[in-house]
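Hello, quick one for you while I still have it in my head. Could you read through the record and tell me how the tokens relate to the sequence? No rush at all, and the record is pasted right below.
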Amino acid sequence: MTELEKGPKGRRRGRGARERILSASQQLFREQGINPTGMDQLCAVAQVSKRTAYQHFTGKDELVAEYLRRFDPSVLSGVFDRTDLTPRERLLAAFDVPATTPLCPYIGAAVELHDPEHPASQYARDYKKAVAARLADTAREAGAADPEQLGEQLALLIDGAAARTRVLNADAFPTAAAIAAVLIDNAIPATADDDRRREIPAAGR
């Protein structure tokens, strides 16, 4: 085996190289941002040569797009696919976000890239639309009179809370959850089986 078939420290260029590159991108892009992260550093962390990296990705732009595409393809399945919660409770569960959660990678990428035509920007738009759509579907299931409007309102609250938490270094999600509860209760007619007494998620969940 020649040196060109090995990455840094002699690690073999195996079938796992692509996954190591993506894993390194998830770590570095979230910890230090997309723009400050160069291919040299990505290759060093992934333990692959640059030649190997470019065999899997044509360039950094393609890698960034793939990083976002694979980040959460299920669109918050841990919230929306729960069967132990009522639709209203699932809407509120979307705000059950630990304060230590990093800034949404789709927001971060859109802010950094400054290019609406970048493939990653398109993935970010598609994902954010998908979140609003799932909120709207859940609102419709809960009986909201205008589920699309409620879905957009809740999506805006989630993104606003995420950005404010990051900027202020203080958990904004409990306040957002309280606002969401008011919006939800105003949008969804009260029914006999509504659990209005369900406690709104609190900080430190």
In short: The chain has ten helices and no strands.
